[in-house]
Amino acid sequence: MRIWASACLLLWLPASASAAGLFSATHPTVACGDDAALRAVSDPAMVAQHPPAWRKTLLRQGDCHAVTPDIKWEKIANRNGLPLMRRVPPVPGLAPLYFMTGDITAIGAPASAPVHVAPPPAPVVADTPTPEGPQQPVEDDLPPIAPPVIVQNQERPLPTDLFFMTRGFQKLGSLTLTLMLIAGAGWIMMRVLRTIWLMARRRKAIGTCLRLAERHRPMLARWYQQAEDGATALPHSPTPWSTHVERFTRTTLLPALARDGQSALWPAIHKTVCAHLTTLAANTARTSSATVLTPGIYHQDMNQAEYAAFCSQWIEKAGWEIRPPVATGLGSVIHCSRNGLKMLVHCWIDRKPVHDDVIWQGIKEKTESRADIGAIVSNAPYTQEALLLGKKHRIFLLHHEDVYKFVSGIEVPDVA
After folding, report:
1. Which of 3, 201, 225, 277 is the most buried (most CB within 10 A)?
2. What does the pLDDT look like over 64-85, one tens digit per residue?
3. Are residues 279 and 316 in the same domain?
4. Cα dist. 128→134, 136, 137, 142, 249 in Å?
5. Taking the model in full, what pTM does it have?
């Protein structure tokens, strides 16, 4: 029997607990979303002081609703002395409402009756005989009775931990994901910018090589023509064009790239540059072979070999003994001698001003041949850097129209 009673008690506890948390209105009344509006509407004296339109406006502004006893409500808070209730079951769009304290009652609770507080018992007066005389009251000897303490239910305060109130773990995960996305985007942007920077540097280095190839176009065309003629005469011998390209790269292109700090880019651009050199030399060689010119008469479309032959004729006419012109990396070299005096003439034809690289080539050839006089002859003017370099190393920079006058005016020692 005790077991069945305990089971019934356990089943009754949840039902009674859930029923104790529901309330209903004791009579048709009004509940508002604003506690101040509810107090004003529920005050008969204030309603009597204003017209009916004021009450209608206050009901509309305070979000007030008519409530009947058949609606169930759940208490969620007690603010400003008024209970804040929400409907059970919830109705979409209906916010929690304030009720007057006397307008609601718990569902299933007995009707409230006025509670009379019994007055405290009167102090007991004891009559004890004393030797001094009549009986004395002992009321003054008793301790004072403390007033009754009214204990009210207080709401449990909400947690004040900001981390858990704001769903800190979710925000921490979102922050971590955002940082990862920003870091990934930054890394990709750095890679893209580095690729663009390398492409720009390579384009600049290729432009430098192409300008030098355009400046030495006649020489490259002559080398290509010689390579083609040698391959035709000796089909089984390897073509020397790759050797010419390698020598041009070593003596001209790589020093220019090193001056600009771009020599490290050569492995990445050498295929493109070599292909352009081959195409440029082949096109120039075909164009030169189609046009036949007389070496003894100057013409702007002369190649390097024809220009060297033209200059050697004027030197020989002035009484100097010459050797056949020899092609070098930049132009052609004519070795001249007269009565034991050695002179080296470097010939260079171009449509652009002569730069210092041609001057350095002439200085190198004069030093290696141990010539007494060194001169550079060209159809183009010289840059200011080239003039200063020639003056410093005592190299005469001449135009081909001044060659005959220059070599004729050189004082040659007499030999007995």
Report:
1. 277
2. 999 998 888 988 888 878 898 8
3. no
4. 9, 7, 9, 15, 137
5. 0.34
Share of the chain above pLDDT 70, in %: 74
The amino acid at residue 55 is R
CA distances, 266 to each of 208, 249, 261, 273, 369 (Å): 11, 10, 11, 9, 32
Q: Is 155 a domain residue? A: no
How do residues 152-186 score in pLDDT, each as one tens digit?
Answer: 556 665 555 555 566 666 677 778 888 999 999 99
Q: How far apart are the first and last CA of the chain?
A: 158
* Of 307, 263, 304, 328, residue with least CA distance to 401: 307
Final residue of a structural domain among 290, 312, 328? 290
Q: How many domains does the chain have?
A: 3
> Which tokens hold the place of 73?
């409500």
For residue 416, the 8-state DSSP code is -
CA gap 97, 67 in Å, rounded: 10
Task: Dump pLDDT digits (tens) for 183-196.
Answer: 999 999 999 999 99
Structure token digits, residue 383: 């840059």
Torsion of CA 275, 280, 282, 288, to 10 degrees: -170
Q: Are 200 and 267 in contact (CB under 8 A)?
A: no
Q: Quick check: bond before 218 cis, omega within 30?
A: no
Are 281 and 221 within 8 A, CB to CB? yes
Residues 337 and 284 in one domain: no
Give domain status of residue 12, yes or no.
no
Exposure letters 316-328 (e unless 16+ CB within 10 A, then b):
eebebebeebebb
- The residue range of the domain holding 92 is 22-106
**Selection from 382, 327, 377, 394 nearest residue 356 by Cα:** 382
By the 8 A CB rule, do 378 and 348 touch?
A: yes
Question: What single letter denotes the amino acid at residue 239?
Answer: T
